[in-house]
Amino acid sequence: MASINEQPVPAASPVIGEAEIEAVVRVMRSGRVVQGPEVAGFEEDFSGLVDGRHCVAVNSGTSALYLLLLALGIGRGDEVIVPSFSFAASANAVRLTGADVVFADIERGSFGLDPAAVEAAITPRTAAVMPVHLYGHPAAMGRLMRVADKHRLAVVEDACQAHAAALDGTPVGAFGAGGAFSFYPTKNMHSLEGGMVTTADPALARTLRLLRNQGMEQRYANEIIGANLRMTDVSAAVGRVQLARIGEWTERRRANADHLDTHITAPGVTTPPVAEGARHVYHQYTVRVPGSRDSAAAQLAEAGIGHAVYYPTPIHRLKPYWEPDQKAGRLWDLPETERAAAEVLSLPVHPSLGQEDLERVVAAVNALEVVL
């Protein structure tokens, strides 16, 4: 049990400091608050994180995924292969285009799509595959790209949790036809709210810019059907401040994860593995506690250690997916997904943790009474 004088160790700690506040005030005083110079500057700055790809800022990570799928021409009659072990936005973006979601199983170590499961799920209607770089660990992009290239499928990277992650030196968001990032406050960097699409294709980038702005580049000269999914200059200004610190914060996360890796010795608790060549940025530090996850969570809460379960219900079991699939007779065989949903538990790893916080996390985990 936590001491009466000890403050709980938070599971996450979004940063909104004086630099972010000053950036917001500066933009508000300028009068240029929507889709102006700060957005353009943020796009240019973020390009450095994704090997110089074109960057298109939007109002959320979900919008980034949705617009990228639309820009690729994906819609009714198409299928997109998606992991069920992710946040619902991954599949929601597909459904919003009118395309069908096909769920494929994940690899045990990375929690990313299993390339063999993806290949087994391909049908004549498959148009794209959407790997999710879950918890900040890159999916198996080398093998996934080979499957996609073999079957001529677009690859849409959901990198919403993986800013600055990489595999074999290539940053996430720079593998497929395009990538999508989120800047929600709990992410490794944020812009209060927002998203970014990345692509190497200038024509695709232009289409994305049209789609986010009512289908027009010049005012009242609408070229296609679009929507209002723009990022504000207020959000972009915050994002630029955060982006300048993402390198420092990432190294703190990685150092914190290394400390947890080294010192967590509790039997029955498996620390997160890292694939060869992968740069894990630890949006979450996610352990496995087979058979005792809920009991472990209760014990951590009593010890004052913040924690979370991402995701206790896989997407394919959520009502909007489960009910239609049951009616259509679609049954998903996803054993690794089901196993992960029952076992995962995320511990504090954010850069605001101090040494004492880390030691409290380790002590609480090593004191867990788990059923082996």
Can you describe this structure?
There is one protein chain. 38% of the residues lie in helices and 13% in strands. With 372 residues, it is of the alpha/beta class. It has two domains: 18-243, Type I PLP-dependent aspartate aminotransferase-like (Major domain) (Aspartate Aminotransferase, domain 2, 3-Layer(aba) Sandwich); 246-366, Aspartate Aminotransferase, domain 1. It has a seven-stranded mixed beta sheet, sandwiched between helices. Strands 7-6-10 form a three-stranded antiparallel beta sheet, with no helix packed on it. A two-stranded antiparallel sheet has the order 11-12. Strand 2, helix 4 (89-96) and strand 3 form a beta-alpha-beta unit.
Entry keywords:
alpha/beta, 372 residues, 38% helix, single chain
Helix-strand topology string: HHEHEHEHEHEEEEEHHHEEHHHEH
Q: What is the general shape?
A: globular
Strand element count: 12
Head-to-tail CA distance between termini = 22 Å
Strand order of the largest sheet: 1-9-8-5-4-2-3
* Tally of alpha and pi helices: 13
Using only CA atoms, what is the Rg? 21 Å
Question: What is the number of independent domains?
Answer: 2
Classify the fold: give the CATH topology of the largest domain. Answer: Aspartate Aminotransferase, domain 2
| Structure class | alpha/beta
Write down the CATH class of the largest domain: Alpha Beta
> Hey, roughly how much beta strand do the residues contain?
5-15%
Q: Can you tell me the CATH superfamily of the largest domain? A: Type I PLP-dependent aspartate aminotransferase-like (Major domain)
Pick out the low-confidence regions: none
* Second-tier CATH architecture of the largest domain: 3-Layer(aba) Sandwich
Percent helix, as a range, is: 25-40%
What is the makeup of the main sheet? 7 strands, mixed
Q: Determine the mean pLDDT.
A: 96
